[in-house]
Amino acid sequence: MIRAQQSDQPKAEQFAFRVQDLRRTYFMKGETVHALRGVTFDVLVGEYIAIMGPSGSGKSTLLNVLGCLDRPTSGSYLLAGDDVAKINDYQLSRIRGRRIGFVFQSYNLLQQLNVLENIKVPLQYQGLIGKDANAKCRELAELVGLGSRIYHRPTELSGGQQQRVAIARSLVNDPYFILADEATGNLDSKTTDEVLELFESLNASGKTIVMITHEDEVAARAKRVIRLRDGVIESDERNEK
Amino acid sequence: MIAQFFQIVDLGIKSLLVQKMRAGLAALGIFIGTSTVIWLVAMGEGVSYRAQQQILELGARNVIVRTKEPNAGSDEEANSRVKAYGLLRADFRRIVENIPNISRAIPMRELKFELRLDDRTADTKLVGCTEDYLELNRLEIARGRWLSTRDRGEKVIVLANDTAKRLFPYENPIGRTIWVGSEFYTVIGQTKDRTASAAIGGSLDSRDYNLDAYIPIKTLRQRVGDLVMKRVGGGQGWNFVGEDVELSQITVEVEDIEDVDETAQIIETLLKKYHEKEDYAVVVPRELLRQAERTRTMFNVLLVVIAGISLLVGGIGIMNIMLATVTERTREIGVRRALGATRSDIIGQFLIETVVLTASGGLAGVLFGLSVGPIFRFAKKMVTTFSPDSLPPIVHELEPRIALWSVLLSLGISLGVGVLFGVYPARKAAYLDPIEALRHE
Ligand SMILES: Nc1ncnc2c1ncn2[C@@H]1O[C@H](COP(=O)(O)OP(=O)(O)OP(=O)(O)O)[C@@H](O)[C@H]1O
Ligand SMILES: [Mg+2]
User: Which of A66, B173, B391, B408 has its CA 20 to 30 A from that of A143?
Assistant: First the structure.
C-alpha cells in the first residue's frame, strides 16, 4: 500500500467532491456527541473508495453529510464547485436527486411498486418522465441482470436481487457518485461478490463510488480505503492492484 | 406535467391498495355522507315537488274561501240540535259586488251523500257547483258532457270515475237514472280519473275527486237544501245532528296575479264584518306556495348542515387513517427524500392519496345516490308486497327527485374534506427528518 497521491494538483472539474475540516456535533439532552471532528479529504472523479472504522466512529454520519441528507455543524463540502454545507432543504433535495445515488444496507425498495417502477422513482422527482424513461429503466434492469424480472415486486426477489435493483435505481439519474452504506452487510459471500463485481464494472466505466464496509475482503476490492476513528481520519490509503 | 400528475395518482391508488380493507373502511364514511345527502335531498325535493304541484292545481291566481266548522263556542250552542255556520250566499253576492279586479267568483257546496241504483250504493261527495267548476279544478270529461247553463235547476248529475264504477260496474251510465236521496237524477256525464290535490281549509286530507258526483248548485239548493242531518251514534238509538251550511267554498279568481294577496286581505276584512265566528278560512295558494318554498329551503339547509357534520366525521376518520399511514410508511418517506423528493413532493403525494381516497368514496356515494329512484321504488314494492297497508299514502306517492346541486355539493365537499384533512398528515410526513425516517423500524 502507498499513500494517496496528493502531489500534482488536479483541476477543479476532476474533483467529484472535496470536504474540508468537516465537523458534526449532536446535541442531546445535556450531552454533546462529536461524531465528526474535522474530516478533510478529496475524491476525484472515477475513484472507488471504501470507508472503514469501528462502530460509532462516524462513518454513517460522514456518509449522510456527503449524501446531502444532513448538514455539517461546521466545515465546507464542495460539490462541483458549490459549497453545499449551508444550503436549504429544497436545494439539498434537488442535489440528492440529481447528483447522488444511494445504496442502502437494507435495500429500501418500495414494496407497492415493481422492479421497473422502483428504478423509475428518482426520475419522477426530476420531472424526467419522458418516453425514454421506461427504456432507460429497462436497460438498467438488464445491466444489473434483472431484465427478466422487471414486473416482479420486491417481496418476490432475493436479497441480492433486491440490492441489484437498488443499484440500478441509484444509477438512473446519472449521478456524480454513488454512496453505499454497508451495501453488502445483509448479503452472503456469493451475492456480496455479485454486488461487488457490479460496482467494479460500474467503476471501470467511470462511476465514482464511496462505500462503507466492515469487512476487509470487501474493502480490499476498492481502490482506496479511508479509515475513521473517533470522528477523524486515521488512515487514507490506496490499494495496490 | 400531466403525465407526472397521473403518475402520482397512480402511486396513490397503488399505495391505498396495499391496505384495501383499511382504505375501504376509511372511504366508507365519505361514501355514506355523500349518498345520504343525495338521498335525503332527493326525498325532500320529491315531497316539495308534489306539494308544489298540488298547490299549483289550486291556481296561483285564486283566493279560496272555505267554510270551516267553528270551534264549539258556548254550551248552548254545543247542545243545540242544528248548527248553522259557514259562508252564505249573501257573502258570495257581497264579494262579487264589492271586490274589484276579480275575473270571476265560483260558489260551491259539497256534502257527503249516498247515491243508489237498485241494490248498489256509492258514498260520494255530492258537489253542487256551476259550469266553471270543471275548468277550475282541471277535471276532464271521459264520456257524456259536463253541466251547462241550461241544466241549472234540473235533475242532472255528472259522476266522477270511481263513483260511476261503483254504480255502473259494467254498463255505460250516460242517460241512466240514479237515486239521489228520494229523487231520480239523469246521468249526463262522467269525469276522468284525477289525482288528489293539496289539503286546504285546515283539513289535513287532500281532496280526492274520484268519488264525487256533480249537480248544478241551484238544483242542490232547491232539492236537497242547506240542512243536512247527520246520524250520531250514542246511548240508545240514534241521535240526529243538523248542519245548516249554505256554501262550502267560494273560489275567487283575481285578474292580475300581483293583486292576489291584496284581494285576499280585502275579502278577509269584508267577511269579518258579517261573521261573528271564525267559520271560514281564506286560503291563498300563492302564499301556500311561498310557504312550501320556505319549508323546502329550511329543509335543505338542515340537510346541508347534517351532511357537513357527517362528512366532517368522515374526514376525521380519513385523517386518522392517513396519520397511521404516514407513521407506517416513515421508511418509505425517508427513501423518497434520499432519492430526491422535496418536501412539497411528499406533501403532494400524501395529499393526492387522501384526495383519491375521499374522492373514490365520494364518487361511489354519488353513484349510489343517483340510484335512489330505482332502489326506492324497489323497496316500496317489497314493503307493499309483504304488508300492503303499512306505508302511509305520502310515502306511496313520493317519487324522489335528484337535485343536481346536491350531487355537485357532495362531490365538492368530499374532495374538500380530502384536501382539508389530508394537509396535516401530509405536512407531518414532509417535515420528518430524512435520516431518522430512513432509520425507522
Ligand atoms: N441522531 C443522532 N443523535 C445523537 N447522536 C448520534 C446521532 N447519530 C449518530 N450519533 C452518534 O454519532 C456517533 C457516530 O455515529 P455513526 O452512526 O456515524 O457511527 P458508524 O460509524 O456509522 O457506526 P456503525 O458502524 O455502527 O454504523 C455515534 O457515537 C453515535 O452515537
Ligand atoms: Mg453506520
Answer: A66
